[in-house]
User: What shape does this take?
Amino acid sequence: MRFGIVVFPGSNCDEDAFHAVRDEFGQDAEYLWHKDADLKGADVLILPGGFAHGDYLRTGAMARFSPIMAPVRAFAERGGPVLGICNGFQILLEAGLLPGAMLRNKGLKYRCEHVHLRVEQTDTPFTSAARAGQILKIPIGHGEGNYFAPPEMLQMIEANRQVILRYTDAAGRVDEAWNPNGSVNAIAALCNEARNVVGMMPHPERACEALLGGVDGRVIFDSIVGTFRSAESLALQPSFAGNERSASLSGERSR
Amino acid sequence: MRARVFVTLKPSVFDPQGRTIADALHSLGYQNVADVRQGKYFELDLATTDRAQAETLAAEVADRVLANPVIESYRIEVDGS
Assistant: This one.
């Protein structure tokens, strides 16, 4: 399967994501520049971490207007799997592809450390290989990961089971002492209602090799590779894949 | 015309920067500063002399870009010519 990795000016985890999917998982990977109008036949999209457009104004606020976001939106609306990691998550929020917004970390500090995460939902293309309740140890690195949603929106998100990962202690208990940024309901990852768009603050691409201190991030990539493989073996080639013509047309229209 | 746009976090949204500034002021002895909310201020230089047009334009820009409606609200002042 082919991963499309979107590169904005200021992205800095694009090469890590590229390395993980190609060298660790043996998949095709292609960089997609933020000014590109098509997705080069990608089957899955990753919006990587970094500081897109310098994160001026608000994190992800400028990236949302990059030309590539029109075909990204069309791909997501066709059911294509999209994973936003860290800054990519912030961009998906600003673009309205996921609900809510990010605030400065509660302690105002940039937090760069391993955290424990509890898998809440496994019926998304990025968590299907995980077990519900499984504890993952994956690093974070962000200054604005304090997830916020107003009460009615939060209630909806919880009712729809859109919270995918929560910050916990090593035993999987939610505890404010182990919430690194003050996120409401200890939310670390979230999906949309259709469950194909996922945003997460932790960096799974930094946790795919023992050399880097852990391999718990592998389950995220195992999930999407497995999801795609089982769709293929059932001859249910997802219809969102490789539909470049409609992607670039919708890109044209919105300009 | 010139428009001034003030973007602030909604009252229901916790402002960690404002809280830190308030704590710092308290430690400096300013006990009478009960709380601080930090925001953003923009000056827009608009190529129009029509006040209504200026207000509409500033509001559109604030809605689309300057403020995130999930967490922020804004106020606009227009003056000059």
User: Anything to note?
Assistant: The helical segments of chain B are 16-27, 51-66.
